[in-house]
Structure formats: C-alpha cells, structure tokens
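Whether sequence alone determines local backbone shape is best considered at the level of individual chains. The sequence in question and its structure tokens are set out directly beneath this paragraph.

***
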Amino acid sequence: MNRKTRVLIVDDSRTGRALIAAALRRDPSIEILGSAGDPFEARDIIVRDEPDVITLDVEMPNMNGLQFLEKIMRLRPIPVVMVSSLTVRGADVAIEALELGAFDCFPKASGLSGLDAYAGLVPIVKAAAASGVKRRLPSSVRQDIHDASSHKPSGSGNGSAEIIAIGASTGGVEALGEILPALSESTAPVVITQHMPALFTASLAARLNRLCRIEVTEAQDGMTLRTGHAYIAPGGQRHLHVRRLAGRLTASLDAGEPVSGHRPSVDELFSSVAKVAGKNAFGVILTGMGRDGAEGLLAMRRAGAQTIAQNEGTCVVYGMPRVAVELGAAEKTLPLGKIADFLMSSQGAATGVKH
C-alpha cells in the first residue's frame, strides 16, 4: 500500500547524479534505486531491478538519451523524465524526447543552486510513477494531415469563433501535435499556454510550425492575432493575455506573480479571453498536473464560450482536465483525437485577420 517510488538516475555527470538524488531523497516516498553514468550501465540495472521511474540525461556518451529512450519505450516501457540543459540544442532534443514517449522534461540545474533547482523534479517523478506508461497513439503529425479541411459543419456551436484558447502541461506536446496539424488555414487564431521553460517553448513552436498548415510561432507582445496562426506563450517570466485594440485581438505579455504555481498561467490566458471574446471563443484544457486553467475555463464558460476538456483515457496526466470537469467548467469532454474534429466542425468561418 505504501510502497516507495523506486527511481533510477542516469546522468554522465557524477555531480548531476548526486544533486538529483539529494533532491529526490527529501521526499520519504521516493527511493533511489541506483544511478548510472551511461546507458549501458543503466540497462543492467533496469533488467535486474525494474525501476518505477527513470530520470535520463539528454546528452551522454556512448549512446545519447534519445537513442536510449527509444529502446526503453520499445523494449521495456518505463516512465522516463528527461533532464535537459537549457540550450537551444537541449530544448530541441527535449521536444523530440516528449514525442518519443518521455513523460516530461525538466531543465538541468548547475552550480550551487542545483539542489533547490531540482526540488520541482519531485512531483514530476511521483506523477510519472502514478501514471505508468500509456501506449501512445500514432500522432497525426506522422499521418496525412490534408484531410482536415474535408470536415463538414455538424456541431451545435455558437457559429463562427473569433479565437481558440488552449492550455496544457505534462503530455501537452503530444496533444498539441495531434490537434494543431489537423487545423486548416481558415481556423480562427489559436492562443496556447503550455507549461515549459523559455527555450523549450521556442523549440516547440518551431517544430510544430514545420508540421502544420497553420503558422505556429511564439507570441510576441503587441502581435495582432491572425486567422490560420497559433501563438504559444513564451516560457519564463510573463503571462500571455489577449486584449482588444482598435477592434483587433492582440497578444499581450505581462509581468505578474505565478498563478497556480505557473508563469505563464493557463488561468490567466483563459480569463483574458473570457473578458474580450465572451461567447465568440473556444476554450480547450488538455492533459497536465495540477489545476491551472480550471478556473479560467469556468470564466470562459460563464461568458458564453464553448469549453472542452480532454478525457481521462487519452490524458498522460488527468489533473487539469479533471479539476475543470469537477468545477463544471467543461461543456464537453472529448478524447484527444476528437478535439480538432470538433473545433473544425463547430466554429464555421473564422473571423480573424489574414495577412
């Protein structure tokens, strides 16, 4: 009943292994099963001791983290949390790792701040152990996405949408990779808050942009929100809000304290959309830990927007959507594969601004 979460730490840096182990040991429900300096050493521990969770450095000698992750997911699926350096290269690899099936990615700490910086790894490791490894459905980014425009209006929505707001956390990379490539160039502007560090969101936007017909970019302060475009809130120091200036919807990046433990916060994004777009908006809350976004989605529903929560069966972590459903914030609960269909069939002609 009270079995501890057994963790294997894989990192080529002895200091890195020690910092992660020290941070995780602060929680009495976590046991450090072992540590390994390279994937070959880790392989033997995995076969012998069967850890519940692995923390895996992205860049290691002999076999890089992505190669090892792919082998783990194929041969002996175990929840894996990638630990990635805060560099452009590290962020690119982290996004690819999430697509391969990693549970989450965490930024690598350095220097004397390392132990405290790894404190945030504790709840992620525990959530990874609780979730197990769900078989990932093939992402639509690897399928023919050109049938999205063939959807016929069949929803019971409010007519044309002026804006679509999406919030996600753990598992969101996979979920966004399923939804965004299915949207057509006539889709209303999409604004997204995905919990990630700064460089990670830039890498995510670039990767999604290569896979989608709509344009996907990081949001910039003062940008006009346009039809056929998606805007991802930059990770880091500011919240993404939507404002109306001279009749046009614009992105606003604003300083503020973390909300529900996050900056940018999904609650902040949804609440701003509720104020400026009301019934002419869609709100979508996707997989993720915690409760960020649930109150904001409720504000959107009360303002007349159509609101959707991802269902439990397709979530990597059924946290944020669960709270939204419990609050009555979600008008509909849909599996991941049906969300884009609903958006396309319900919104009708978008009303954003084209180039």
